[in-house]
Amino acid sequence: MTTTLHKFKGPVMWTQIFEDNRDMKGYNEATGAFDIPSPTNGRYSIFMTLTPEDFKKLKLTGSYAAKNSKFDDDGNDVVKFGRNHEHRNFKGELMDWASGPPKVVKADGTPWSFEDDGAVGNGSICEVEVTTYTTSKATGTRLEKVKVIIWVEEVIGEPVETEEVPF
Predict the structure, then answer these.
(1) Are 42 and 17 in contact (CB under 8 A)?
(2) Contacts 24+ apart (CB under 8 A), 112-116
(3) Residue 166 binned pLDDT confidence (cut-offs 50, 70, 90)
(4) Residues with Cβ within 8 Å of residue 136, at least 6 apart in sequence
(5) CATH classification of 3-22+37-150, choosing from 2.40.50.840, 2.40.50.140, 3.40.50.410, 1.10.260.40?
(6) pLDDT tens-place string over residues 71-85
């Protein structure tokens, strides 16, 4: 299995990267909605707007995340990176190294605390580390680490105004 680490930097949104705010719902084929308990005891995710160069690099890996990217209102590629809370192999055995929340740190490398520092709001600028890996079916993509470079406070129920930040 080929495994490669990649780093991408850019604006993020809809972050669920902490144990306390992970997505606890799974997809229900009967209803076509995410309305059943998660089979992985939750999932961590972050949506990131990639530069055209970074998106091309990710797409060249064959990453499933790149294949499922969406466009934002400006035509930029937005990719969802994720990680299971409980990742199991084909035998049903827990793979600790691929489970649990991604590592989240501040710009200076010190740990980020959801309780003390809060959630990472839409428009924050982050650097993410993801691993791409080959499987028998497709190229998987797993979120490993999030570095919060410019933090925007999460505002519940209100649109967030952000400024264009060069990087």
Answers:
(1) no
(2) 112/146, 112/148, 114/18, 114/19, 114/20, 114/21, 115/20
(3) very low
(4) none
(5) 2.40.50.140
(6) 988 889 999 999 999
Q: H/E/C letters for each residue in the chain? A: CCEEEEEEEEEEEEEECCHHHCECEEEECCCCEEEEECCCCCEEEEEEEECHHHHHHHHHCCEHHHHCCEECCCCCEEEEEEEECCCECCCCCECHHHCCCCEEEECCCCECCHHHHCCCCCCCEEEEEEEEEECCCCEEEEEEEEEEEECCCCCCCCCCCCCCCCC
Contact 38, 24 (CB under 8 A): yes
Q: How far is CA 3 from the centre of its chain?
A: 18
93 with 87: CB under 8 angstroms?
no
Q: pTM score, two decimals?
A: 0.86
